[in-house]
Design brief:
Number of strands: 6
Largest sheet: 4 strands, antiparallel
Order of helices and strands: HHEEHEHHEEEH
Oligomer: single chain
Structural class: alpha+beta
Low-confidence stretches: 1-8
Radius of gyration: 22 Å
Number of domains: 2
Mean pLDDT: 87
Length: about 210
Amino acid sequence: MSPRAGVAPAPPAFTVAEVLRVGLPDYAREHRLPPQQWRVLRAIMACRTPELGGHLYQCSRCGKQQFVPHSCRNRHCPTCQGANGYAWMQAQADSLLPIPYFHVVFTLPHVLNPLIRQNQAACYDLLFASASATLLEFGRHELQAQLGITMVLHTWSQNLGEHYHGHAIVTGGGLRDDGTWAGTPPHWLFPVLALSAMFRGKFRAGL
């Protein structure tokens, strides 16, 4: 159920920081994480705690004081970036075309996890390059048009296990060279098995 207009949603029962403070010590004993991920996790756990300090404000009329803790301002922190994330989504929604969009996921096999963990930048770049080239080639071959693509990297599964994959939002059609629009059916983009085969070939060649 969505919140009523003008009514703020109820605060969550638990914050991500609270969950991390409870569960991360046990998780860390069995899993190794890259330094940059540790920095993000530590920032989220320290957000709005005495560890980061804060500002004490006092009303000039009544003398009432209010302490406002400092936030971590990390871009991964849901407490800090919730409003920014909502504003970003609204901006993307304002740019949507009146066409169908498709959600396509490109997943890397778990056997590559150790290699990716040690070569993140190169492997992430290869994932994006292989996936986008695959979609663009299908657009040119099937539609003779230029697709629109937005891609986001995810490195974890819902249970916080390593799971490297990219989410692509793809326009249901594209622009031809003459400026006209080549559309797709509302429930069909490209054959999944053919997409998979081309993506796999491009990633393996790049690897």
